[in-house]
Amino acid sequence: MNWSSRSNALFLCLTMVLAGLSGCLSNEGGDTLRIAFAVKDDYASFDDNPQKLADYLSEATGKSVELYAITSDALALEALRFGSADMAFLDGGAAWMGWQQYGLEAMAASTNADGRSHYNAQAWVLTESDAGQAATDNDDTTDPFALLEGSVTCHTGWLKSAGMLIPMGYFIGEGYAEVVGDEDDIESLRSTIFNHFSEDAVIPESGTPYYGYGGALRCLSEGEGAVAFVKDTSVDTYCPENGDREAWCLDRDRYTPLPPFGQAPSHPLMYQPDSIDDETKSSLVAALVALNASEDGRQILANILNAPSVIEVDTASHLGDYGSLIEHVPGITAYLDEKFSSE
Questions:
Q1: How far apart are the first and last CA of the chain?
Q2: Fewer CB within 10 Å, N side or C side of the chain?
Q3: Residue 57 belongs to what H/E stretch?
Q4: Percent of all residues in the chain with a pLDDT value above 70, rounded to a whole number
Q5: Pick from 155, 107, 157, 34: which is nearest to 319 by CA?
Q6: pLDDT confidence of 30, banded at 50, 70, 90?
Q7: Rounded to two decimals, what is the model's pTM?
Q8: For residues 262 and 122, what is the distance between their CA atoms, to the nearest angstrom?
């Protein structure tokens, strides 16, 4: 073979290799969708394995759906941001950050036991307190939120959504409380709480008696604080009028709710709009909503998604109220960016 022939042959081989490589690159993903999901090494039953969800979505949409293993929301966000995954169920904070920073969108969300895809962050006070009386006197000139200034507050924990971020976002955004310290430092929130309310504010650590929703309500009930920042269903959960009640509960009529601060979203399925088109999104939403209608589907919801049902949502409606409140918290964007950035 002469040099010209060898050159032509080499050129032909190189062209074929590049064409094949180009095909691989241009079809990367193809009809395959990747859902970022926390997985374990083994499962007691396949019913608990998220692969069952992936298999169901594959059959229902006609596309290959694969699991992309992650261990945290931070890694899920990274996978969505850089194209390693196309969709993931995220908590409210991670979802809001993904929407604001990376242009992610929500297509569906899990619901609570009452069928809502959110709960209301709400303050509860004792009915006989000044704030309790102001909340029920039908007098627009009395403001129960203003009367809480200087009070000892019961929070569910540090930087919890309903127990701190949403109510403090409300108090700061509405002008009741002034930020004390650096506007870009999340630790300024602690100083703000102490300055506007009380240095005795109860901000419990995990594992202590006043931690969580029940703990904050117990803090109010036992007189440690004057207001509990919890959610709208907390009193009926821990201190129902009929049924099992915690030992520290007061009579049901001793508790009065103040107007809700706003909504905390349930876990949405966030997706990368650059890799999932409207038609694919619609088929995924239809498949997820169809889970509500069959016994096998409800088992997937309960065992894998830990939810009673799934509904279709849009990003602004699901995350907008939450975001408009927490954006007033000093340093929240930097905090969430650091929290949900891969180490």
A1: 56
A2: C
A3: helix 51-61
A4: 91
A5: 107
A6: low
A7: 0.83
A8: 8
Smallest CA-to-CA distance from 145 within 164, 128, 168 is with 168
DSSP E strands in the chain: the ranges are 32-38, 64-70, 87-89, 105-110, 118-126, 153-154, 227-231, 255-257, 262-265, 268-271, 310-312
Q: How far, in Å, CA of 51 to CA of 304, rounded?
A: 9
pLDDT score recorded for residue 1:
46
pLDDT tens digits for 177-207? 999 999 999 999 999 999 999 999 999 999 9
CATH C-level class of 119-264: alpha beta
Pairing mode of beta strands 87-89, 268-271: antiparallel
At residue 45, does pLDDT exceed 90? no
Residue in 176, 177, 245, 259 with CA at minimum distance from that of residue 217: 245
Q: Are 68 and 35 in contact (CB under 8 A)?
A: yes
**Torsion, CA 290, CA 295, CA 296, CA 301, rounded to 10:** 70
pLDDT for residue 118: 95
Residue whose C-alpha is closest to residue 163's, from 112, 210, 214, 228: 228
Q: CATH 3.40.190.10 spans which residues of the chain?
A: 29-115+266-339, 119-264
**Distance (Å) of CA 241 to CA 29, 56, 230, 249:** 54, 42, 18, 10
Buried b vs exposed e over 70-89: b needs ≥16 C-beta within 10 Å? beebbbbbbbbbeeebbbbb
Q: To 5 degrees, how large is the angle CA 38–CA 333–CA 342? A: 35
- Scored b (16 or more CB within 10 A) or e, 133-163 reads bbbeeeeeeeebbebbeebbbbbbbebbbbb
Q: Per the CATH hierarchy, to which homologous superfamily does domain 29-115+266-339 belong?
A: Periplasmic binding protein-like II (3.40.190.10)
